[in-house]
Amino acid sequence: MDDKLLINFQRQQIKTLQEEKAAAMDALDLARELGGIGLSREQPSLGKLLYDICIRANQMIPFKSCAVYLVDSETQDFVQARSYPELSDRGLEKEVDSLIADQSFAYALQSDGPVFFLDSTGNSHILLHSLATPYRVRGMFVGEMLQSKDEILDTTLKLFSVFLLSAVNALENCETHEFMRNHSQELERKVQQRTLELADAYDRMNVTLDGMQAGVMVVEAENHRIVDANPKALEMFGMEWEELIGQECFNVICTAFRGKCPIVDLGLKEKNGEYVIERKDGIQIPIQKTVSRVMIDGKLHMVENFIDISEQKKLLDLKEDVERIMRHDLKGPLNGIIGLPEVLLMDEDNPPTESQREILEYIQTSGYKLLNMINLSLDLYKMETGTYEYRPAVADIYSTVHSVLKDLVELSNYKKIVFKMQFDGKDVGGDFSFNVRCDEFLTYSLLSNLLKNAVEASPANEAITFAVSRTAGKILLRIHNMGEIPEDIRDTFFEKYVTAEKSGGTGLGTYSARLITETMGGSIYFETSREKGTSIFIELPLMA
């Protein structure tokens, strides 16, 4: 080859390289801009993106017509999603139907690059190129070529594959964007709906709280500061909202000390009780308060609900005053009733018959019992108010028990109850005695209440045991029966007006037993179960 031919050959090579470079740059530009999202660009719709793919593919390789077929997610069939030109005839579709039928589509899906097939006329080629990611097939690009496949440079075909890979990524981005947009819209709808619901609930809650006749305060648990209060709470404290908010609950409504909060420090979920609050003007108001724990904005808070019980207290005081007056006024006539049998029994001129004597003695005994009950009622009031003067003396505890059992003989015989006496774990007879330092009248009342309860609670044909034992500087009295204390009153068994709904029950028996025991310097508690029955334990100091 002479120098002239060599120079022409090299020029032709350079021109080809330049054309390939230009084609590569154009292909990269087409791929880079396809479906791109910049700071100032919006994500194109799927239809617009598919149209761009067809237009830009046509710029790289001229096609008579081309189309993008996407896989239907439900049927897994290839469906034409976009074609170019848009008004082209159905010739390309017929060619595609034929290629799908003879498995040419399936073959093209296995290839990483373009695959060519002759059309039905045998005069032109159909280009197939899969649109796939490493994880799934998105579709197929189909183009009816204007030129022979042999006229297209290998570099152009490689660049065409790069472009279509970019197209697949753009389709993925478009789908992800559409999913995120729909998800965002759904979230926004739910947030708006929830916001409206919360606003409505908040308004209804405020209407409820503002209209309540109970005070409500919210206290932040971490620092014990009041963060909200309803109008009734402000009225009860005689303060404005700005005066109350920010104060520590210890200074306003709580009787606990810092570090001993029942909710925060002691771990209780709820606390109930009677308290006294002091208004801004110094007036004290008795309240019934309930405190419970709630979470607000991820922080532990306490909600305090309280009502003014001043009127209830006045009514209770009035009731107790009336009862004391009645008890006091009853004692005068009752002393006359008790004294009259004594006068008749001592009448030597006209002595009563034996049957009359029994009736008179019964009237006298019953009168004394009633008088003792009235005196006990007055004494219990003094115990409640802390004004009772305890004057212990020596008394035989077993003798007191036998006196109580005489009053219960009719009921115990009816239920066929057997009484057992024990001392230090051993059975003792009816003549056994043991002295304790106590108030004999109070002790009689204490044992009368507890033994009567035991007889009423015991199943028929069972035994009731009264036992005394000495331990650790104290004496321990135990009254056992085979009945079981109902579970719903166990926590309040020794409180006032607590009863198991028995006929004629007042709920004062065990309450008075606790008052008497504590007045005598002792303590009272119980154990109960279905299998072992119930034991009431009374601890009293040993006689000095």
Molecular structure report:
The chain has helices at 3-33, 46-60, 91-101, 104-109, 154-211, 231-237, 241-244, 310-345, 354-385, 397-407, 409-415, 440-457, 509-519; strands spanning 63-71, 78-84, 115-118, 125-132, 137-145, 215-220, 225-229, 270-278, 284-296, 299-308, 393-396, 418-423, 426-427, 435-438, 463-471, 474-481, 523-529, 533-541. Residues 35-40 have low confidence and may be disordered. It is an alpha+beta fold. It contains 13 helices and 18 strands. The strands form four sheets. A six-stranded mixed β-sheet has the order 13-12-15-16-18-17. The radius of gyration is 50 Å and the shape is elongated.
Helical content class: 40-55%
What is the SS-derived class? alpha+beta
Q: What's the rounded overall pLDDT mean?
A: 81
Low-confidence segments, given as residue ranges, are 35-40
DSSP strand content: 15-25%
Largest sheet: 6 strands, mixed
How do the strands line up in the largest sheet?
Answer: 13-12-15-16-18-17
Rg from Cα? 50 Å
Q: Helical element count?
A: 13
Distance N to C terminus? 142 Å
Shape type: elongated
Tally of extended strands?
Answer: 18
What's the short version?
The chain is 45% helix and 24% strand. It is of the alpha+beta class and 544 residues long. Helix 1 runs parallel beside helix 5 (154-211), helix 10 (397-407) packs across helix 12 and helix 12 (440-457) runs antiparallel to helix 13.
